[in-house]
Design a protein that fits this description.
The structure is a homodimer of 175-residue chains. With 175 residues, the first copy, chain A, is mainly α. Chain A has one domain: Orthogonal Bundle (Tetracycline Repressor, domain 2). Helices cover 79% and strands 0% of the residues of chain A. Chain A has 9 helices and no strands. In chain A, helix 1 crosses helix 2, helix 5 packs antiparallel against helix 9 and helix 7 crosses helix 8. The termini of chain A are far apart. Chains A and B meet through helix 6, helix 7, helix 8 and helix 9 of A and helix 6, helix 7, helix 8 and helix 9 of B. The structure holds a DNA duplex (30 and 30 nucleotides).
DNA sequence: GCGAAGGTAAAATGATCGTTTTACGCTGCA
DNA sequence: TGCAGCGTAAAACGATCATTTTACCTTCGC
């Protein structure tokens, strides 16, 4: 495995498990099996590492949503949560831990949420045949809710969100 | 104002603004206008302070929800977000930053979510005249979603959640 | 075969962290 | 009058943090 890939993968795991500030560079280099010199050569500094982790995570998530449907969206979240014990949205967590003061991190968060929103926009069009802003907003909200509720109530939260989204979409479709 | 009250209030603000780990004890004592010796006399240590802040916050929130209705619930969240620039649920953030490894903090989070759930249970009974578990789960999910979506999209997210909750409650009521 | 690129190991840097300690001031009550 | 309780100010504590530096090793293309 590529060094950068290995670094980002282990960093993502450690950040999710212990938090960003609480994860020291020693634990990161040891986990990735590289020297600190190499780490800094690759990502500049800790904030650069965090931003890189987030951007990679965003890419991986969208690769997981194969088709534009409500089922696929929440299905992706479900497999997401099944294989990694996520403690809330990692983007918001990074943003919150850094007080929103680190541009690269704030931008990664912003970009991720915008991409998610765009994706849901496509899903709504695919599901009901036209654009509906309120439905987009609601589904994004349900997605966000599922992500965070799952942190303390388990994956079942995703099913609740999916069913609610489906019901609301049906209502709009019928109107 | 009482020392403990002042300490918890400023700590809550600083924690929310900068994160828990990033807020040093110096900034806390300076912000509260007390010596570090007094701080430790009052809350034991930093984790004790965090737990105290969370428990006080929980109490304050429930005091804000005056009646058992969907409107009151999301109305409380709205005024909540208007007067304090919340960056996601402070309970989940504390829990995440400490990796879930600090019992007092994990318990404060757990307790808060349970109390919220119980409250929503009462609201559902008041709204539709009977118990409905799925609706309770969905409204909690919408609440969680609103809390976190508002972090990057503003208070308007609360309106979206309230309308969705109302629509879903109406559907259940009509069935 | 040589030099550049990219890696390791380990120590040093200076700052900052949470926490404890020392020494002292004020206030109210017996 | 004196002492206990509660507060401040400030230094010291040892640990840990992110980052840089020094010295050395391997590999590969020319």
């Amino acid at each position: 495995m590529d060094i950068r890939t290995r670094l980002l993968a282990t960093a993502e795991q450690l950040f999710d498990r212990h938090g960003f500030n609480a994860t020291g560079m020693d634990r990161l280099t040891e986990g990735a099996g590289i020297s600190s010199r190499t780490l800094y050569k690759h990502v500049g500094n800790k904030n650069g590492l965090i931003a890189a982790v987030l951007n990679e995570r965003d890419r991986r998530f969208h690769r997981l949503v194969e088709e534009d449907s409500i089922d696929a969206l929440f299905g992706a979240l479900e497999t997401w949560l099944a294989q990694e014990a996520v403690r809330g949205c990692l983007f918001l967590r990074a943003w919150g831990e850094t007080g929103g003061d680190v541009p690269e991190i704030a931008e990664a968060m912003e970009r991720h949420k915008q991409r998610l929103r765009d994706r849901i926009g496509n899903i709504v069009v695919a599901e009901i045949g036209r654009h509906d802003d309120e439905l987009v907003e609601t589904i994004q909200l349900l997605f966000e809710g599922a992500t965070h509720t799952a942190a303390y109530r388990g994956v079942a939260a995703v099913d609740v969100a999916r069913r609610a989204a489906q019901r609301l979409a049906n209502a709009v479709r019928a109107s």
